[in-house]
Amino acid sequence: MGVTEQLARFAVDVPRSAVPAAAVESAKLRFVDTLAVMIAGSRHPSALISLEVARQIGGNPVASIVGHRDRTSSPLAGHVNAVSAHALEYDDYTKSVTHASVCMVPGSLALAEQLDKSGADLLDAFIVGFEIESCVAKGLRPFLIDHGWHPNGILGAMGVAAAGARLMRLDQMQLRMAFGLAASQGSGVRKNVGSMGKAFHVGHGVRCGVFAVLLAAAGFKVDPDVIEGRDDGVNGHDRFGMADTFNGIGNYRLDKMVDGLGHHWELAENTTLVRMHPGSTAPGAAIDGMIDLAKQHDLKPADVASIELECTPQCHTIAPYATAADSHKARFCLPYSMAIALIERRAGIAEYTDERVNREDVQTLMKRVKIIEPDDLKRHRGQWGEAGVNWGEMRLTVRLNDARVVCTQRSHARGWSENPATWDDLKQKYEECAGGVLSQSQVDESLAMIETLDSLPKVKDLMAVLQA
Question: 395: left (phi > 0), else alpha (psi -120 to 50), else beta?
Answer without folding.
Answer: beta
